[in-house]
């Protein structure tokens, strides 16, 4: 059972998501809120698997709420899936950078939302849509964005750098294993070690770090 909290300031949007999830086997809606502050409180109270987070909400917005949830060690098992009305939204990049596990557009088909929730709840990052990588590439190219600690990057082995580039290209562990002719278990181990060395919460942050470090450049990752 995947337990979900809905955070959106539009009551009709929340109602639509609730109906969708409550009529689908394997999902439970723990609660719904209209602002980021309440989303953080509800996440702490119920410890859901996924918080579906709108970006623009009154008071504490989805970006700040995402940061608070992902920075709380007690909520390490809570994933954030960001929803936005716009396919090019600087706040979406910042949410990914702050620890969100991916994002979807609000006009996404219901079946795609259900798939996204399953992917994120399983600990993967929702990186398949090419718009995600384009978005990250666009904003990390801006000079005001910080780059990762070079000391941490130097700890990566050549193989780990290769794996990181493939993660940034949106490849799954199985696809990485096939590409490098290694076992899926070995691919998972490499990804896990990279996340530990770079202090990344999940694969979404690995993609951001790969672009920010210029280890991967727009157009080179897939």
Automatic annotation (TrEMBL):
GO BP annotations, alphabetical order: phosphorelay signal transduction system; regulation of DNA-templated transcription
Keyword Nucleus: no
Ranges of residues in domain Response regulatory: 3-121
UniProt-recorded Gene Ontology molecular function terms: DNA binding
Domain called HTH luxR-type: residue spans: 149-214
Keywords assigned by UniProt, alphabetized: DNA-binding, Phosphoprotein, Transcription, Transcription regulation
Protein name: DNA-binding response regulator
Organism, scientific name: Gandjariella thermophila
